[in-house]
Design a protein that fits this description.
mainly alpha
Length: 137
């Protein structure tokens, strides 16, 4: 029964949410907006990590976001991007930590809720996944 409920919720989310949101993009604005919010000293680190991410160099991008977060631990864009990359790399526990930190600061971030739901589903925490997906919509 839980599988059917999860499948129905996921189908509803896919029907309602734009593809951009599900692809891990910010719900509003663009990457240019992300860069505008970056403090000037952190911008080169964020740009470098983002470039590595776009090039498909997941491990290097995770490390680059880690460097950014050592200097700016509350950088929520860096946390979200690293969390999504950790999820992609199968590092579900680490991804859930980054994404939960984003959600504490920005509970309106639909992309983070969707990614957090994916983490919970991967960790076999279906009830938490369903709750996360419903908040992503």
């Amino acid at each position: 029964m839980r599988v059917h409920l999860l499948a129905a919720l996921l189908a509803a989310m896919l029907a309602v949410c734009p593809a951009k949101l599900l692809a891990g993009q910010p719900p509003r604005g663009s990457e240019g907006d992300e860069l505008k919010l970056e403090p000037k000293q952190n911008r080169p680190l964020f740009e470098s990590a983002l470039r590595l991410e776009r090039e498909g160099k997941t491990a290097a991008a995770i490390a680059a976001y880690g460097e950014l977060l050592r200097k700016a631990p509350n950088d929520w864009y860096g946390l979200r991007h690293r969390g999504q990359l950790l999820l992609k790399a199968g590092q579900l526990e680490a991804a859930s930590h980054d994404l939960s930190a984003v959600l504490l600061a920005h509970p309106e971030d639909g992309a983070a809720w969707a990614s957090y739901g994916d983490c919970m589903r991967g960790l076999k925490r279906d009830k938490d996944a369903m709750g996360s997906y419903s908040k992503a919509i």
